Amino acid sequence: MCGIIGIASNKQVSSNIIESLKKLEYRGYDSAGIATISNGEIDEKKCTGRVAALEKIIFKTPSLGNLGIGHVRWATHGAPSKINAHPHSSEEVSVVHNGIIENSTILKKNLEKTGYKFKSQTDTEVITILLTDFLKKFDLVLAINKTLEKLIGSFALGILFKKHNNIIVGARRGSPLAVGYGHNENFLGSDSYALKSMTNKITYLDDGDVCILSNDKIIFYNKNGMKINKRIQTLSSDKQTADKGDFKDFMSKEINEQKFSTKVCIKEYVNHLKKDINLYNFPIEPKNIDKIVIIGCGTAYHACLAAKHWFEELTSIEIETDVASEFRYRKIKFSKKNLYIFVSQSGETADTFAALDLCKKNEVKTCSVVNAVESSIARSSDFILPIHAGPEIGVASTKAFIGQMLVLYILALKISKIRNEIPKAEYITKISNIKKLPDLINKTLKCESKIKIIAKDVYLSKGFIFLGRGPSFPIALEGALKLKELSYLHAEGYPAGEMKHGPLALIEEGLPVVILAPQDRYYEKTISNMQEVIARGAKVLLITNEENNIISENIRFSIEVPKTDNQLTTFLITIPLQLLAYHIASLKNLDIDKPRNLAKSVTVE
Ligand code: M6R
Fold first, then answer.
1. Fewer beta carbons within 10 angstroms: which end of the chain, N or C?
2. What is the DSSP secondary structure assignment for residue 174, as one 8-state letter?
3. Pair 382, 365: CB distance under 8 Å
């Protein structure tokens, strides 16, 4: 994963590098580093932990210079340590890298044979040494090209040179990289978000591109080494802000914000006057679609699973879902009559991007459901459906999940209407129900005080089970994932009907089991499964709708979400699970916004 930044300016750069690195921490936060060119020498500083720790070091011993690169790391090769933190510098060059060099072991062996010594366990250091070696024999551009030719794998690079002390070189293959244009300064960054406070004029590098930036110009080369011109884009201004406001952390802000983010999204897609959905220019005529394949990772994949139910209920189209890391290596039978939908908050997830790329190579139609509209996935797909959730900073995805489900639900409804598969009256009722969703989310959020009590009762448990059927099953998976990533507790989501095929053996006295049983066509079956776990001593938290008539003195807690359309209930039953994971992690005093070992944007395989 990792985030990189580079600034070439006519003034000191270290404080802006630090501010940008803070914005990139969503990509990795196990170590951080900076290198500047100061008095003709490379000045490198790095440390384990957060950017705040690096900032303290720089406060004591300033990093001087008008040219610098910075890095936040999510370890792939070598443990998080000061020595493995980037930049990796030699006497001549300093390199920051996002991605993975797959042939680093063999390159390292060959370089060691010629006498070079390595300081770290990283794959990145081979780039530093290769470049140092080639610079002895070739000019700058040739040395860069020779180095890049040797690399197999993915990279976005930022490179400083001792002897060329007014330029930064950027290069991209597989991992995203953008440049930004400023007044007497230019920037390099893993994404536009990191550059946004300094410029709104951006160019994205394409695969194979190399750029050389100084404070007054940027030169681009394509993968064939030809000088090229690239389009400058003006970034849109965010309506929602990326600061915590009065909230303790981003996650609590983002959970709370769902009542607003859904409103913004609905306003973008639903025309209440015309009682219709504003979705046109589909990349493929909906009446001719044979199959829809919906692909994502992690939480985004859970949104795909929920959407499968809605597409199946509302249309006659065959629906398939897949985890991107599996899809990209399967032997897929592609068809031009299929639509391939990619779901991703960041739009930069490496596996999802690779799966999209595979579709593009097979010349089939693609659509992306993304939050970051300037992301690689958005830019590469035939049709973009933004979720309009605003910046999501907490590593655990909450408002983006609700936004992804909302856009997929709206898409299913519209496709059903175009294919004449939904009666007009039902379509209109569903549209007016969507309008009420933000309000219902607001009402559901009021369960927080009860969730706090429940969290106190269960937070010391060893493990948790989440059960649901139909569209509640993906929410069970999502509830378990949220709890795992935030509280480091073992949690499993299962289809409730699967329990007796093995997992029932896990139930013991006091094990918390969360039952998702809204009053839909699966209700009675799920309630029977609930009785089975209660009979074996489980401590049950039932999540259902208001006006539920289930009375069982053996249910430890119950949460009732407001009654609405069955399909929209799926959104509401998600909220108590987000709050439960949040409050359990909070009682355990864990870092809510940056759980251990994770990163917000998973830009490596
Ligand atoms: O940016 P993406 O939506 O593509 O990210 C996919 C997953 O990495 C992400 O949803 C992850 O599972 C979250 N941390 C879960 O909260």
1. C
2. B
3. yes
- Residues 6 or more apart whose Cβ sits within 8 Å of residue 199: 180, 181, 182, 187
Relative to the CA of 346, which ligand 1 atom is closest? 1
pLDDT mean for each 10 residues of the chain (605 residues): 93 96 90 95 96 96 97 92 97 95 96 96 97 96 95 95 96 92 96 87 93 97 93 74 83 97 95 92 93 98 98 98 96 96 95 96 97 88 95 95 98 98 97 97 97 97 96 98 97 94 92 96 94 95 83 84 96 98 98 91 79
Across-strand partners of 50?
A: none
Decide if 433 is inside a domain.
Answer: no
Distance 113 CA to ligand 1 centre (A): 42
Number of structural domains found in the chain? 3
Hey, how many other C-beta atoms are within 10 angstroms of the C-beta on 547? Answer: 9
Residue 600 annotated in active site: yes
Nearest residue (by CA) to ligand 1, atom 8, is 298
User: For the whole model, what pTM was predicted?
Assistant: 0.84
User: At which of 186, 204, 234 does a domain end?
Assistant: 234
Structural domain containing residue 547: 447-587
For a substitution probing ligand 1, which of 190, 299, 343 has the most ligand atoms within 8 Å of its CB? 299
**Is 287 tagged catalytic?**
no
